[in-house]
Amino acid sequence: MPGNLRWKALVIVIITIVALIYLSASISDQLPGWWPKKKIKLGLDLQGGTHLLLEVETSKAVENAVERVSGDLKDSLLKKGIRYSKLERINGNEILIEFQNSVYMDKLKGVLDSEFFNLKELTAKDYDGRLSVRLGFSGKEVEHIEKLAVDQSLETIRNRIDQFGVSEPIIQRQGEKNILVQLPGIKDINRAKDLIGKTALLEFKLVDEEHSIDDALSGNIPSGDEVLYQKIVNRETGGSVKKPYLLKEKTLMTGDVITDAKVQIDSQYQTPYVTMEFDNRGKRLFDRITAANVNKRLAIVLDKNVYSAPVIQERISGGSAQITGSFTTEEAHDLAIVLRAGSLPAPVRYIEERTVGPSLGRDSIHSGIVSVIIGGMVVIFFMTFYYKLSGIVANMALVLNIILIMAAMAAFQATLTLPGIAGIVLTIGMAVDANILILERTREELLLGKTPRSAIDAGYDRAFLTILDSNLTTLITAALLFQFGTGPVKGFAVTLTIGIVASFFTAIFVTRFIYDLVLTKRRVRTLSI
Fold first, then answer.
1. Environment class of 304 (CB within 10 Å of its CB; exposed 0-12, middle 13-18, buried 19+)
2. Mapping DSSP to helix (H, G, I), strand (E, B) and coil, where does residue 299 land?
3. What gap in Å lies between CA 332 and CA 262, rounded to an integer?
4. What is the pLDDT of residues 424-471, one digit of tens each?
5. Comma-separated ranges of CATH 3.30.1360.200 domains in the chain
6. Of 97-101, 230-234, 486-490, which gets the smallest average pLDDT?
7. Nearest of 386, 363, 390 to residue 460 by alpha carbon
8. What is the DSSP string of 1-30?
9. Which strands, in side-by-side order, build the sheet including 130-137?
């Protein structure tokens, strides 16, 4: 065998062996431990799963923003000695301020211009020397807050699902306020929905131990306080009770300062708890809070539910804290996920939910495999009938082409969907297209009286640029589909791209090697074509 054929044979053998190694993990589970375990992933339409469409309640994000600004405005007015008789949020997204004297109007404007430029004055009324001012966000500011809420919700949900361990989820924005979530292979739908939709607003609040909780439960809640509950589960009976707490409404610290959260197991009681690490700002805040409230109880509140309310024994400056409670390891794991991923800026609600069962997925796989087999058999029969032995050479390249496509999808952990199967079927037809061009050009050269060697050389040379142009334009189309398409369209683009690259290799490189090998080994006077 000449040297140029020897290295071509080596390349083909190596690529084929590597492809079979990667493909074998998707065919059989009985493989040694060192064997590559990368498999072809199946999309939602093939293995079943959950399809969810969520709507972000952006109005709540605006209300939360107004609530935060109103709290900051209170602090600024007090620091500057501007006394007000009332400051509260009204109508969802407005702030009402009442002063005993209208002389405070100029001072209020000075504070707004210097610190709260995103607020604008809606109305100002003077009643016998008393001043009533309504403030609110501009329309552009409201649009910005709503858009930011959807973008943050999208990123937070993506982070949570990534940590939840779902393979190849589809998470994307639809319209102005909706988010599409597809979770292939998820069986515990309710747990996934709870994880996605949990607002995860973590707050640290002081327990009010100066007033009676019983009086508060009877309706006599002190000003600036609120009643929240802790769910305590009896592990033996499975029952639960709600323990009430009287808490200060003021939030001392929120969960946006958390950098990490992990599940740990208590060595004494073998119960799970969650440890949290704070960023530099959180360390300073927690240090200041614990230093000022030694021997007081600090409640850890998540989505208005009290998880624990330990006594601050001493100043804590290490930048970490713990959440203990009556929850299982799974609940602690999910809590750590939402704390790491961050809180949703606004609640979400489910407006559409569809479940694809595994039986439907199996039917889709069966139909896809049947279509690939039938399409392949038709192409193989036609090529053999029309091009004889040369058609068999093209068929060998076609079989190798399918093996390379599936192996590449396994190696790159690509997701196979129904549109992806359609891409494979399309590739089967395109795979022999290049061979047809080469064989027709070779036929023309043979009719001119050229030898088989000269006809083969001329056939490949004349068809090469045509094949290159057609594959290149299709690759560009596939790249655009992948860039701008959604999940199923991307699946089609991936298989189409891999198929084009594989068919180019098999049509130009592999079949040419077979012809060169036969013509070198034997004196061929006629081609079966």
1. exposed
2. strand
3. 9
4. 877 777 777 888 888 888 888 888 888 888 888 888 888 888 888 888
5. 202-322
6. 486-490
7. 390
8. --HHHHHHHHHHHHHHHHHHHHHHHHH-S-
9. 86-90, 94-99, 130-137, 119-127
Pairing of β 41-42 and β 415-416: parallel
CA–CA distance, 347 with 84 (Å, rounded to integer): 32
- CA dist 402 and 431 (Å) reads 9
CATH of domain 59-142: 3.30.1360
pLDDT of 361 over the 70 cut:
no
Q: Which residue has the tokens 């007081």?
A: 296
Pair 177, 50: CB distance under 8 Å: no
- Please, what CATH class does the domain formed by 202-322 belong to? alpha beta
Cite the residue boundaries of each domain of the chain with CATH code 1.20.1640.10: 3-47+357-521
CATH of domain 3-47+357-521: 1.20.1640.10
Give, in order, the Cα–Cα distances in Å from 118 to each of 78, 96, 146.
Answer: 20, 16, 15
Contact assessment for residue 297 and residue 277, using Cβ atoms and an 8 Å cutoff? no
